[in-house]
Amino acid sequence: MQIRATCLVQEGDQPVRYAWTKDARPLDARLGVRTSQLDAFTSILVIERAAAEHSGNYTCTASNAAAASATTARLTVNVPPTWVVEPSSTSVALGGSLALHCLARGFPDPVVTWRRQAASGEFVGVVEGTGSGESSIVQWKNGTLWIGRSARGHEGRYLCEAGNGVPPGLSKLVDITVNEPPWFRATEQRQEVRVGGTATLTCHAHGDAPLTLTWSKDAVPLSPLPRYQVSQHEEQDQGGTISKLVVTDAHLEDSGTFSCTASNTHGVRTSQLHLLVQDVPGHPSGIEVVEVGPQHLVLTWTSPQDSNAPITAYIITLEPQSPSAGAGAAREERVGGQERRLVLKDLTPATRYSLRVAAENRVGRGRSSPPVLGSTEEQPPSAPPRDVRVMAVSSSALRVSWEPPPHNSTHGTLLGYHLGYKLASDAEGAYNFTRVGGVGSIGVTSARVSGLSPHSHYSVVLRAFNSKGTGPTSPPATAITLEDKPSAPPGQVRCDGVSSSSLVVTWMPPPPSERNGVVTSYRVAFWKTAATEDSSEEAAMMSKDLRAQLDNLRPWMNYSVTVAASTRAGQGVASTPLICTTHQDVPEALTMVKAVASGPRAAVVSWAPPTHPHGRLTRYTVYWKAMGTGTGGEISRRVDPQLTHVTLHDLSHVAHKVWVTAATRKGEGPPSSVVMVKPSHSVAAGVWSVGGNVTAAWREDVSLPCGAVGMPEPTLVWTHDGVPVHTNKDRAVVQRDGTLSLSDLQRDDGGLYTCTATNRHGHDSALYHLNVLVPPSPPSLHVIETTTSSVRVQWNVEDTGGATIQGSSLHYRVAGDQWTQVAVTGDQRTYTTHNLQCGSLHHFYVTVHNHVGRSEPSKTESARTKGRPPQSPPKFQFVTTNSSQATLYLSQWIDGGCPITHFSVEYRKESVTTWTTVGTEIPPTRTYSLGGLEPGNRYMLRVTAHNTAGFAPAEYSITTPSLGHSVAADSGVSVWGGAPSTSSAWQELRVVVPAAVSTLTLLLTLTTVFVCLRKRSPARTHQKGSPETVIGTTEKIGPQEELYTTVRRPAPSPPQQQQQQPQQQQQQESREAQGDYPRDELYHYAAATYRVGNGTPPPPAPPSPPTHAHRPLSRGQKAFTALVYQAPSLHDVDCPNLAEGEGRVPWPRASPPHGPAGVADSQSEGYGSLMSPRGPSPPAPGAPHHRHPAKHPRGPRTCVRNVRFP
């Protein structure tokens, strides 16, 4: 049918353009629509054959240059229905689903309707729905007929009709047929039976007849066994056919899948019947400790064969291996059958456990797995040290004593204690901690804390620690150090003169921090500072106040004053000498006055200044008086204070009395003694110089005046100690005025000098006592006390040089360093140098000086501060390894009293000679990890510890275990703290070789026993009560003899002692060759114990921790002991390898001399093992001592050595 549409423009300017669209889109060429323009104002759209797809909105748009105009018209094309999917007759299996499609198209969309022919012949409609019911028949919206689960009632004729109101409509009649192939109400069954029981398997099949039923097992036709009985019959009530298979006396191999196959013309169907013959499960395998903690172990395992019964539970038996646990300490834990992992909690730290796993099902509980050993890690102690007591032992030290934490709270081997101390007034967290004790510090119960402040209140706490950390802190214990002498002088010392004979001294107490106790008094020392005064004139007075008055002093005298505080411990440091001067006073009388006639009416009067002027002299006054005159009449003349002689003129020719006084600003002093002089025309020789005592310093110049008068002029002669002075020497010259000048004085220039003047009228002389002061003689120095950081020296001065010693200079240095000088004031003759290098050699010399000069140095003395180079720990305390690294416990080194400054670490493979340096300045931390090692290799490790006293190298041999190396209890080996492994320990040569050697040893021993028994004489055999038989000896083994024993070898001697021990070595070798070892030279622990009779002997297990004990074997076991190489443990590298030091036995006698390092080796290396020639070393100093076993008398000798047959 053709359709035309015309678009007509009524008006508008030309040209006009036309555009057609359908549904707002350009026309699709596939629609077959064409357009044409009749004239300028008309356009036509033509559809040759209209179809449903032509329906839509058509728009004609006319446009010119001015505007555009559009118009739209709707086209609807009606199409009768046509089949898209035409339904057809079909069939469906019984119980199957069926989708019968009926789909038509047209315009409008056709409506599809299904109807079913009823029993009356009429067609009734099918309900439209979603088809959710399995047995329902529904019509979907898209026209599909759906049968979810076909049944017999679904058979019949069905009509599908499609119509949209446009004739003609569509319809189709179809038939649906339902077939019944074989089927089972239950396609799978499960039946369980115990071993030996009877199982009946029933197969009930349905379907169109005829039905055929056959049996098979595991896809194989059923075997014709007598125990398999098959029967078959038709079921009348429920329909179908039943076949029964009866299995009698069920075996485990009967378990499996029995298949019942039913077949007819419509198909084949199989029903599976699973028969489970059940038994108790086997033991789990692959038991492994995969995680270790202080209070937990994580255990994993592999399920056993379940014996066709689901495992309902696993029972884990946990038993501590510590003897302290006692009987009944084992516990069981149950987990569900689906678990393959269990976290064992609430365990005791540092304890070895035996672990077994058993499986359980509804049949019963199976056998337990072989035991696996696992050890919990250490954890920090959970309790502090007990009963901490502190007692002062000196002004700078406290003695701290305590009891160790309870044994069950140490959680491992104690490595020591952290002792903290602080001033009680300091903040709570201000404790200074230091480490005391070492491995096995369970026996360390006291320590000394030094370097404290005197008379100070201290608080002390203690914390025990092991390899995992530090435990809780003990409650603080307090004590006060003893008093000491004050370490600082009083302050603000001041001295004031109050009179010519008194001084007042005031001061303030020393700083509180340096009083070092309660100040009970102050000592005020004072002495005259004149160079000629002897120091023995020092005086002192005590005062309890802060003021003292010094009386009965000399006027106008310089005094040195010091103040020192005193406590009950003694007098402390004196203050710096303070020079004080008393007030002036009138001078004392002149003691040396001389008058000589110098002419008919003249005389010369001379005098020496007063010995104690008591002030600054202002004048002299010379008095004279002619004899025969009455009272009064004396004449005086004042003389300047710098003059010491005066000439008197116009004297009468009579005798005159002459005397002299001195004056200060305080007044005129008393007169001197009176001297007589009489002028004369004949003037006899006279020496007006008064002479006296003259003191001069060494190498100075001095002039001794000899003023003389006389007529004629007298002759002067000088003598020294009665010997004329030779003036031709350079150092002795007599001047023209008679003065003797001595230059560059030496000590032997001192003595009595006499100047004698002589003429014909007489003679006179003046005497001089010359004292030459020289520097002191070299002092004698010696050391009186040393500590780790100080040296106390003392010196004596035999000759002070005639002058007071004013001070000393002490010089000291550490060997090879620069000298340090310390000034020591006053008459102090001892000094303590502090802050010296610990354990180092120091040199000392001292000089002293007086006001003349300094002495020659003393002889240099050497002293070493206390302390020694570090001491290396044994290997079991120092190093632990795993497959790729070694952990070094640097804190286990003994510092020798001087703090360790740094370490250097080197290592090499045992097969390589070149060392690899890891570090040369490693700080002294607690641990240091050496990584990059290869598994399964032996390494040599060289560690050098340095302190100020020197350095100490130590070499260790370590072995990195192979990857995955851990051993279960079945093999007799356990890694303490490691995870067990199921790998065979016999694959390693270090186990095979010792085992083979031990086996050979056992065979040789048995042969020796047999030979000894054969060679016994008959007389000895029938002796009554003779204990010489092997049987008698072994039957009488008591508890003490059941301990395993190994022979102790002597410790290696130092090189300097090796030359002294050849005879002892020969005796030892002879005794070893004879097998004659005394009872006290047997160690009561063997390196390994092998069981005989249950296959190849297992490799050795490491010894138990020190807190555990070895269990003796039961009487039913045969055992032999052997010394074998012990592989390093593989546990966490952060835990010390404590196993290497376990099982240590005390020395029954006095400890033998130490080796060169002075440190005992680990006990495991101390045994005389087959793998190492080294013998045991004595326990380290300070190591805990244990009560050694009672010494038994030596029993009769037999041919058996180290073999036990319980």
UniProtKB/TrEMBL annotation:
Topology versus the membrane, per the UniProt entry?
A: Single-pass membrane protein
**What is the protein's given name?**
Down syndrome cell adhesion molecule-like protein Dscam2
The record's listing under PANTHER family reads: NEURONAL IGCAM-RELATED, TITIN
Q: What GO cellular component is one of the record's annotations?
A: membrane
**According to the UniProt record, where is the region Disordered?**
358-387, 852-875, 1018-1076, 1090-1114, 1135-1206
Q: Where is the composition biased (Pro residues)?
A: 1096-1106
One matching Pfam family, short form?
I-set
A Gene Ontology BP annotation from the UniProt entry: synapse assembly
- Residues annotated as domain Fibronectin type-III: 283-379, 384-484, 489-585, 586-683, 775-868, 869-963
Q: What is the lineage of its organism?
A: Eukaryota, Metazoa, Ecdysozoa, Arthropoda, Crustacea
